[in-house]
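FW: tagging you since you asked about this chain on Friday. Here's the raw sequence from the shared folder, copied in full. Didn't touch anything.
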Amino acid sequence: MTGSAQLLLLFLDVDGPLIPFGAAQYPTYRGFAEPRGAGSHPLLTRVNPEHGSRLMALACELVWATTWMADANECICPRIGLPRLPVVTWPEPSSVDERDERDAMHWKTRTLVAWAAGRAFAWVDDEITNADRAWVSVNHPGRALLHRVDARLGLTGADYLVLDEWLRGPHDRLAIP
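HL: got it, structure written out here
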């Protein structure tokens, strides 16, 4: 798509949003062929296969924004029925990252804003901070929703409602849920 007809981007993390962690017990999901290499990650059974259809129903272009990088396409997509997605490639750590960390800003923030290149985007992660929101509001000319997910729960119905409403509706340049 080109010009104003482009879909909004949705940058999606894996650990936390799709693989919940930090609580005592989680449901597990089985009953489908395991993707190649899936046995190497013991928490993959926590990925709810319903996430695929719910993510595909959102009016956006999905992009992996995770340290899983291309492995998300190999291990997560087949598990939840997603097509291969674009993947954000992370730069090597730098002194800028160290400064950002001291300022409580996530190391992904600058790269995601650069990747969006002015396009409106939503970012779903369990580590988003107010420092990230402040930096994006000053450094990104497009609209942005930085949506923090509770890692103990992963993406919930309430999260999908927030995302759907923001992606479809009129909104300010930066949304702070």
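FW: Residues 157-168 form the longest helix (12 residues).
HL: agreed, and DSSP finds seven helices and five strands in the chain.
FW: great, closing this out.
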